[in-house]
Amino acid sequence: EGGPGEPSCRSQRLMLQAGLLHPASPGCYYYMPPTVRALEKLVRVVDEEMQAVGGQKLNMPSLSPAELWRASGRWDGMGPELFRLADRHGKGYCLGPTHEEAATALVAAQSNLSYKQLPLRLYQVTRKFRDEPKPRFGLLRSREFYMKDMYSFDASKEAARQTYDLVCDAYRSLFHRLGLPFVRVRAATGNIGGTVSHEFQLPADVGEDRLAVCPGGHFAANVETLDGEQTSCPTCGEKLTQTRGIEVGHTFYLGTKYSSVSNAVFYSPENKPQLAEMGCYGLGITRILAASIEVLSTEDSIRWPSLIAPYQLCFIPPKRGSKEEEEGAALMERVYDDLTDALPHLAGDSVLDDRTQLTIGRRLKDARKLGYPYVVVAGKRVCEDRPVFEVWNQSTGEVLFLTREGVFELLSKAQVP
Asked: Are both 29 and 95 inside the same structural domain?
């Protein structure tokens, strides 16, 4: 853990050293501009996946009335993790850690909702709050964080389970696109409730959850859901291996737990009111940022999923006063300017490190620290008859020597959401 205020895991240490975060108070951080760029890119990818399964984006208030939470039983059930407050009139509220009550109240307020209008799949990406007793590991366990939460309303159990499977597939697609080594595990329903629950976990030593995984991929569960004597896979009989994981997503089939409390009903083909069958689905947006760095990075270099890196590439011109400066600096600026025309998808996604009073080595070290997927260096070979650039691929550690045309061909494969 280290002493008070000291970084306690790789992602926290790297993000603080690179100036991506600045601590404000325990469990709360300033997100610096590059971090916000990564956050916004991640949200764009999440939006694509949620809208591909019929998700409609909305915003719900962070302040949630106490009576909604008392009605569901979670005002007391959440315990001290719930931030509670009262307005000047003494009316109670909480800062929402999740929005099951609010989403259900919204749907309940829609009069004459027809079965023809279902399924409803409503989601938001907003700040959430949890009064963690011991915030730690930077963005992995904080008091204020960004989360994507979706709430689904279906006309039958069968339809609700179809929605559940559909959203789980969207989560799989998301993590595959990010290139993250995830595992979906059976999980407890906890204070949110419901009858079926799965977590999406990134295996990592710093993870707070213990997972039991079949080596053949037939079974995976959070250890807290297992019978104490279960040590082998129920499908193939192989011995389960244990690992630790960081929870980055969670899905719940809720049934009518919340719709029955708020009377969230729709009208059937026979024009009779029926309770909506619900599901809820969370993604820890800021936790995914930190967990990605945790599992992909080296001890001294950030490696982002290339899709959400704050910037795709960094150009490093020669040091001022070096023998390469005269030809190399002008050539590098031309390449940088031509990039927008040749590769418009990278416009605004590249950085020219013009701190030419610093050595190339120092700037290259800073570039590795920030995690640009590609770094293009105007080194000694830029003065050759056919100038050659050094291109560092941060995700593989590979160094390529390429002409201007080769650089453009390589960068044409860079992905930007």
From this structure: yes
For residue 233, the domain's CATH number is: 3.30.930.10
Closest CA to 159 of 197, 116, 106: 116
Domain shared by 175 and 52, yes or no: yes
Q: How confident is the model at residue 6 (pLDDT cuts 50, 70, 90)?
A: low
1 assigned to some structural domain = no
Which residues neighbour 298 within 8 Å (Cβ) at sequence distance 6 or greater? none
Whether residue 306 is contained in a domain is answered as no
289 and 181 within one domain: yes
Q: Decide if 254 contacts 193 (C-beta within 8 A).
A: yes
**Confidence band for 376, pLDDT divided at 50, 70 and 90:** very high
Q: Report yes or no on 66 lying in a domain.
A: yes
Query: What tokens does 17 get?
Result: 């050293």
Q: In this predicted structure, which of 313-317, 332-336, 372-376 has the lowest mean pLDDT?
A: 332-336
HEC secondary structure over 291-302: HHHHHHCCCCCC
Residue 243, pLDDT > 90, answer: yes
Burial of 334 (0-12, 13-18, 19+ CB in 10 A): exposed
Token pair of 51, please?
């809208």
Distance of alpha carbon 311 from alpha carbon 371, whole angstroms: 9
R_g of the chain, CA atoms, integer Å: 25
Give this prediction's pTM. Answer: 0.93
d(CA 113, CA 10): 49
Residue 4 lies in a domain: no
- Fill in the DSSP letter of residue 114: B
The pLDDT tens digits for 177-189 are 999 999 999 999 8
Report which of 93, 167, 137, 339 is spatially closest to residue 247, judged by C-alpha positions.
137
> Would you state the pLDDT for residue 315?
94
In this structure, the answer to whether residues 202 and 162 fall within a common structural domain is: yes
CA 93 vs CA 66, 72, 130: distances in Å: 5, 14, 14
CA distance 119 to 115: 8
The pLDDT-based confidence of 2 (bands split at 50, 70, 90) is: very low
Question: Given CA atoms 312, 317, 319, 322 in this order, what sign does their dihedral have?
Answer: positive
Which residues constitute the domain of residue 363? 311-411
* Whole-angstrom distance, CA of residue 76 vs CA of residue 54: 34
Strands 183-186 and 196-203: antiparallel
